[in-house]
Amino acid sequence: MDGFMDEKNVLKSFRHRKVLTIEQLVGLLQCSVITARRRLKKWKTYTSFNQNGRYYTLPEVPQFDKNGIWKYQAILFSKYGNLKETIIQLVKQSATGLSAREIAQIVELSSNSSFLSQLQNYSGIRREKHWGRFVYFSDEAEIYNRQKQKCISYPQGVVRFPSDTEAVMILVQFIKHPHISIEELAERITQQGRPIEASVIRSLLQHHELLKKTLDTKQ
Protein backbone atom coordinates (compact mmCIF):
# COMPACT_ATOMS: atom_id res chain seq x y z
CA MET A 1 0.00 0.00 0.00
CA ASP A 2 1.38 3.40 -1.00
CA GLY A 3 2.67 5.54 1.87
CA PHE A 4 3.16 2.60 4.23
CA MET A 5 6.65 1.60 5.33
CA ASP A 6 6.99 -2.14 4.88
CA GLU A 7 7.74 -4.31 7.88
CA LYS A 8 11.33 -5.00 6.86
CA ASN A 9 12.17 -1.29 6.78
CA VAL A 10 10.29 -0.67 10.02
CA LEU A 11 12.38 -3.32 11.74
CA LYS A 12 15.55 -1.84 10.29
CA SER A 13 14.60 1.59 11.62
CA PHE A 14 13.62 0.08 14.96
CA ARG A 15 17.02 -1.59 15.35
CA HIS A 16 18.79 1.61 14.41
CA ARG A 17 16.89 3.68 16.99
CA LYS A 18 17.22 0.87 19.58
CA VAL A 19 14.05 1.90 21.45
CA LEU A 20 10.64 3.15 20.36
CA THR A 21 7.41 4.28 21.99
CA ILE A 22 4.10 2.94 20.74
CA GLU A 23 3.37 6.35 19.22
CA GLN A 24 6.60 6.28 17.25
CA LEU A 25 5.89 2.78 16.01
CA VAL A 26 2.38 3.80 14.92
CA GLY A 27 4.00 6.61 12.93
CA LEU A 28 6.41 4.25 11.23
CA LEU A 29 3.80 1.63 10.40
CA GLN A 30 1.06 4.19 9.74
CA CYS A 31 -1.39 1.92 11.48
CA SER A 32 -3.61 1.82 14.55
CA VAL A 33 -2.32 1.37 18.09
CA ILE A 34 -3.93 -2.08 18.20
CA THR A 35 -2.07 -3.16 15.07
CA ALA A 36 1.20 -1.74 16.41
CA ARG A 37 0.78 -3.71 19.63
CA ARG A 38 0.21 -6.87 17.60
CA ARG A 39 3.50 -6.23 15.83
CA LEU A 40 5.28 -5.79 19.17
CA LYS A 41 3.90 -9.12 20.35
CA LYS A 42 4.86 -10.79 17.09
CA TRP A 43 8.41 -9.44 17.34
CA LYS A 44 8.65 -10.54 21.01
CA THR A 45 9.89 -7.13 22.12
CA TYR A 46 10.99 -6.17 25.61
CA THR A 47 9.10 -3.46 27.49
CA SER A 48 10.99 -1.01 29.71
CA PHE A 49 10.43 -1.64 33.41
CA ASN A 50 10.83 2.06 34.22
CA GLN A 51 9.60 5.19 32.42
CA ASN A 52 6.04 3.87 32.91
CA GLY A 53 6.72 1.02 30.48
CA ARG A 54 6.59 3.43 27.54
CA TYR A 55 9.54 2.05 25.60
CA TYR A 56 10.09 -1.11 23.57
CA THR A 57 13.15 -2.76 22.11
CA LEU A 58 13.71 -5.73 19.83
CA PRO A 59 15.05 -8.93 21.47
CA GLU A 60 18.37 -8.82 19.61
CA VAL A 61 19.19 -5.24 20.66
CA PRO A 62 19.83 -5.33 24.45
CA GLN A 63 23.18 -6.30 25.91
CA PHE A 64 22.12 -7.43 29.36
CA ASP A 65 24.53 -7.17 32.29
CA LYS A 66 25.12 -9.82 34.97
CA ASN A 67 21.85 -8.84 36.61
CA GLY A 68 19.93 -9.30 33.37
CA ILE A 69 19.45 -5.55 32.95
CA TRP A 70 20.17 -3.32 29.97
CA LYS A 71 20.21 0.45 30.24
CA TYR A 72 19.79 2.70 27.24
CA GLN A 73 20.13 6.35 28.20
CA ALA A 74 17.77 6.47 31.22
CA ILE A 75 15.60 3.59 30.01
CA LEU A 76 15.88 0.20 31.71
CA PHE A 77 15.00 -3.20 30.28
CA SER A 78 15.20 -6.63 31.89
CA LYS A 79 15.45 -10.05 30.33
CA TYR A 80 13.06 -11.18 33.05
CA GLY A 81 10.29 -8.83 31.96
CA ASN A 82 8.65 -6.40 34.36
CA LEU A 83 10.06 -4.90 37.56
CA LYS A 84 8.36 -7.40 39.85
CA GLU A 85 9.74 -10.44 38.03
CA THR A 86 13.15 -8.81 37.81
CA ILE A 87 13.35 -8.30 41.57
CA ILE A 88 12.18 -11.86 42.26
CA GLN A 89 14.94 -13.20 40.00
CA LEU A 90 17.57 -10.88 41.50
CA VAL A 91 16.72 -12.11 44.98
CA LYS A 92 16.67 -15.74 43.85
CA GLN A 93 20.10 -15.50 42.23
CA SER A 94 21.80 -13.62 45.06
CA ALA A 95 24.24 -15.53 47.24
CA THR A 96 23.14 -14.10 50.58
CA GLY A 97 19.79 -12.44 49.89
CA LEU A 98 19.34 -8.73 49.19
CA SER A 99 18.35 -5.76 51.29
CA ALA A 100 15.82 -3.22 49.99
CA ARG A 101 18.68 -0.77 49.52
CA GLU A 102 20.65 -3.24 47.42
CA ILE A 103 17.59 -4.00 45.29
CA ALA A 104 16.90 -0.28 44.83
CA GLN A 105 20.47 0.32 43.66
CA ILE A 106 20.32 -2.44 41.06
CA VAL A 107 16.98 -1.45 39.53
CA GLU A 108 17.56 2.29 40.10
CA LEU A 109 14.62 2.95 42.37
CA SER A 110 14.50 5.63 45.04
CA SER A 111 15.22 4.10 48.45
CA ASN A 112 11.86 5.41 49.68
CA SER A 113 9.90 4.11 46.70
CA SER A 114 6.49 2.72 47.62
CA PHE A 115 7.26 -0.18 45.30
CA LEU A 116 9.85 -1.50 47.76
CA SER A 117 7.26 -1.66 50.55
CA GLN A 118 5.34 -4.22 48.49
CA LEU A 119 8.23 -6.69 48.24
CA GLN A 120 7.22 -8.71 51.27
CA ASN A 121 3.94 -9.58 49.55
CA TYR A 122 5.54 -11.07 46.43
CA SER A 123 5.23 -14.76 45.78
CA GLY A 124 8.79 -16.01 45.38
CA ILE A 125 10.27 -13.80 48.11
CA ARG A 126 10.40 -14.03 51.89
CA ARG A 127 11.56 -11.22 54.19
CA GLU A 128 13.40 -11.56 57.48
CA LYS A 129 15.16 -9.13 59.78
CA HIS A 130 18.85 -9.76 60.41
CA TRP A 131 21.38 -7.48 62.07
CA GLY A 132 19.00 -4.52 62.10
CA ARG A 133 17.85 -4.65 58.47
CA PHE A 134 15.31 -6.51 56.37
CA VAL A 135 16.79 -9.09 54.04
CA TYR A 136 14.86 -10.64 51.16
CA PHE A 137 15.47 -14.30 50.39
CA SER A 138 14.04 -16.70 47.85
CA ASP A 139 11.08 -18.66 49.20
CA GLU A 140 12.33 -21.84 47.49
CA ALA A 141 13.46 -23.99 50.41
CA GLU A 142 16.79 -25.17 48.99
CA ILE A 143 17.82 -21.69 47.82
CA TYR A 144 16.58 -20.05 51.01
CA ASN A 145 18.58 -22.37 53.26
CA ARG A 146 21.72 -21.79 51.21
CA GLN A 147 21.27 -18.00 51.18
CA LYS A 148 20.52 -17.75 54.87
CA GLN A 149 23.47 -19.90 55.84
CA LYS A 150 25.83 -17.68 53.88
CA CYS A 151 24.17 -14.54 55.17
CA ILE A 152 24.28 -15.13 58.90
CA SER A 153 26.01 -18.42 59.73
CA TYR A 154 29.62 -19.51 59.97
CA PRO A 155 31.23 -22.85 60.89
CA GLN A 156 31.12 -23.54 64.61
CA GLY A 157 34.18 -22.16 66.36
CA VAL A 158 35.20 -20.04 63.37
CA VAL A 159 34.85 -16.26 63.58
CA ARG A 160 34.74 -14.28 60.36
CA PHE A 161 37.38 -11.59 59.96
CA PRO A 162 36.06 -8.28 58.59
CA SER A 163 36.58 -7.22 54.99
CA ASP A 164 38.82 -4.23 54.26
CA THR A 165 35.78 -1.96 53.95
CA GLU A 166 34.31 -3.20 57.21
CA ALA A 167 37.67 -2.86 58.96
CA VAL A 168 37.94 0.79 57.93
CA MET A 169 34.40 1.49 59.13
CA ILE A 170 35.07 -0.22 62.45
CA LEU A 171 38.35 1.60 63.08
CA VAL A 172 36.85 4.97 62.13
CA GLN A 173 34.02 4.48 64.61
CA PHE A 174 36.44 3.18 67.23
CA ILE A 175 38.63 6.28 66.91
CA LYS A 176 35.62 8.59 67.07
CA HIS A 177 34.05 6.75 70.00
CA PRO A 178 36.85 5.01 71.92
CA HIS A 179 34.74 4.41 75.02
CA ILE A 180 31.78 2.53 73.54
CA SER A 181 31.32 -1.21 73.81
CA ILE A 182 31.78 -3.73 71.01
CA GLU A 183 28.00 -4.16 70.83
CA GLU A 184 27.55 -0.41 70.40
CA LEU A 185 30.22 -0.40 67.69
CA ALA A 186 28.34 -3.16 65.87
CA GLU A 187 25.11 -1.18 66.10
CA ARG A 188 26.74 1.95 64.66
CA ILE A 189 28.21 0.03 61.72
CA THR A 190 24.86 -1.67 61.08
CA GLN A 191 23.11 1.72 61.04
CA GLN A 192 25.47 2.73 58.23
CA GLY A 193 24.03 -0.06 56.09
CA ARG A 194 26.71 -2.67 56.81
CA PRO A 195 25.22 -5.28 59.16
CA ILE A 196 27.99 -6.85 61.23
CA GLU A 197 28.26 -9.12 64.23
CA ALA A 198 29.99 -8.10 67.47
CA SER A 199 32.24 -11.18 67.15
CA VAL A 200 33.63 -9.85 63.87
CA ILE A 201 34.52 -6.53 65.49
CA ARG A 202 36.07 -8.36 68.43
CA SER A 203 38.32 -10.35 66.08
CA LEU A 204 39.57 -7.14 64.45
CA LEU A 205 40.25 -5.37 67.75
CA GLN A 206 42.06 -8.42 69.06
CA HIS A 207 44.19 -8.53 65.91
CA HIS A 208 45.24 -4.90 66.44
CA GLU A 209 45.59 -5.36 70.21
CA LEU A 210 42.85 -2.80 70.81
CA LEU A 211 40.45 -5.11 72.63
CA LYS A 212 42.00 -4.66 76.07
CA LYS A 213 41.74 -0.89 75.73
CA THR A 214 38.05 -1.20 74.87
CA LEU A 215 37.32 -3.55 77.74
CA ASP A 216 39.30 -1.42 80.20
CA THR A 217 37.10 1.58 79.42
CA LYS A 218 33.97 -0.42 80.39
CA GLN A 219 35.26 -1.42 83.84
Beta-strand segment tally: 8
User: Strand-and-helix sequence, N→C?
Assistant: HEHHEEEEHEHEEHHHHH
The helix-and-strand class reads alpha+beta
Q: What spatial form do the alpha-carbon principal axes imply?
A: elongated
The spatial strand order of the largest sheet comes to 1-3-2
Low-confidence blocks of residues: 154-158, 214-219
Q: Treating each run of at least 4 consecutive H or I residues as one helix, how many helices?
A: 10
According to CATH, what is the topology of the largest domain? Arc Repressor Mutant, subunit A
CA-CA gap between termini: 91 Å
Mean pLDDT: 85
Question: Explain this structure to me?
Answer:
- The chain is of the alpha+beta class and 219 residues long.
- It folds into 3 domains: 7-63 and 70-78, Arc Repressor Mutant, subunit A; 83-152, Arc Repressor Mutant, subunit A (Orthogonal Bundle), CATH 1.10.10; 164-217.
- Helices cover 46% and strands 13% of the residues.
- It has a 3-stranded antiparallel β-sheet with strand order 1-3-2. A 3-stranded antiparallel β-sheet has the order 6-8-7. Strands 4-5 form a two-stranded antiparallel ribbon.
- A hairpin with a 2-residue loop joins strand 4 (69-72) and strand 5.
- Helix 2 (22-29) packs across helix 3 (33-42), helix 7 (164-176) packs across helix 8 and helix 8 crosses helix 9.
- The radius of gyration is 25 Å and the shape is elongated.
